[in-house]
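quick one, 80 residues, struct below
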Amino acid sequence: MYRFLVVIEKANNNYSAYSPDLPGCVATGSTREEAERNIHEAIEMHVQGLLEDNLPIPKSESFAEYVAIAEKPSTGSEVV
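---
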């Protein structure tokens, strides 16, 4: 079994998805769910193509993490 990190981003009127470990393997969808389905299919096709061409399957080395930053209280001196 192969596992790959997938990043899904909200664009203007749709969603886009890609895997950092599979350059060029991208998908879009009008909803997040559609983008998820499409990137899953794209990854399956990408990996199948690599296997058929006897090319190595990239190791999944990417990871994701959220970073939390505390909001600063307003000082009233900001210029708007």
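Helices lie at 32-52.
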